Amino acid sequence: MSDATPTPLPRRWPWLIAWFRWYTRGFVRKHFHAVRLSRSGGRPTLPDLPIIIVMNHPSWWDPMVAIQLLSLFPNRQNYAVIESAQLQRYRMFGRMGFFGIDPNTMQGAFTLLRTAQVILEQPTNMLWITAQGQFRDVRERPLALQQGIGLLAHRIEHGIILPLAIEYSFWTERDPEALLRFGEPLDMADHPEWNIRKWTEQIEAHLTQAQDILSAETMTRDPAAFETLLVGRAGVGGIYDRWRRFRAWLAGESFDREHGGKS
């Protein structure tokens, strides 16, 4: 593609997006005890500017869980980056605002830049990026964000970088918790003097801080520290839960499926 050729917006089929949001909600509920958002990070209040959400990338579940946050941004059009090889395998995503890049290459960085510039021309658009480029453990430091996110922040004049930390943990239930926390936003207009390396370092520092705080909150195993966005399955199931139900009946108590309940 020559520089004179305009870069089209990734395709978005609204009916397919609506169906996929409905599907993922049920799918996540089936496999997780809950999806929870840290109260210390809160729900972001942002100006009418385009937003880039930069996430860490601990697992295959990340986009499925992140979709549960879309209700926090009801008037936004969402786009996301995916590895080109994965987009070839899951072509459906190409009709839901995903576009493919080749990570760890300069061509991939420039594809990200060209497409993101088109997306971020509109103040209601959001771009979701897992900037580590591959699966990485939440405890790994440094995060090793790809330079493409720094290039993007350096070249875009107006917009907000919003870090999003994500972690999965088993608490008291059979199924895991999906835990998320927004970090401190960065306004791209505030730092015109920063170069690509500086932007990458600062975005990584903000995301690292969000992950560290989320990690400490995760270790408390305290649901009160989180807002519950989605409730999934509870209890162990099978003969164990039947026995607990029978004990509750004998005691004249209501049965609480939560493993941490008094039943």
Overview of this protein structure:
This protein folds into 2 domains: about 15-230, Glycerol-3-phosphate (1)-acyltransferase (3-Layer(aba) Sandwich); about 235-263, no CATH class. It starts with 13 loop residues before the first helix and ends in a 13-residue tail after the last helix. The protein is globular and about 75 Å long. The chain is of the alpha/beta class and about 260 residues long. The chain is about 35% helix and about 20% strand. Strands 1, 2, 3, 4, 5, 6, 7, 8 and 9 form a 9-stranded mixed beta sheet that branches. Strand 6 and strand 7 form a beta hairpin.
From the structure above, extract its key features.
Glycerol-3-phosphate (1)-acyltransferase, 2 domains, single chain, 7 helices, nine-stranded mixed β-sheet, 263 residues, alpha/beta
What's the total count of β strands? 9
Briefly note the structural class of the backbone: alpha/beta
What proportion of the residues is helical, as a percent range? 25-40%
| CATH fold descriptor of the largest domain | Glycerol-3-phosphate (1)-acyltransferase
User: Which word captures the global form?
Assistant: globular
- The average pLDDT is 88
Helical segment count? 7
Query: How many strands, what sense, and barrel or not for the largest sheet?
Result: 9 strands, mixed
CATH class of the largest domain equals Alpha Beta
Helix and strand sequence: HEEHEHEHEHEEEHEH
User: From the alpha-carbon coordinates, what is the Rg to the nearest angstrom?
Assistant: 20 Å
Domains, number: 2
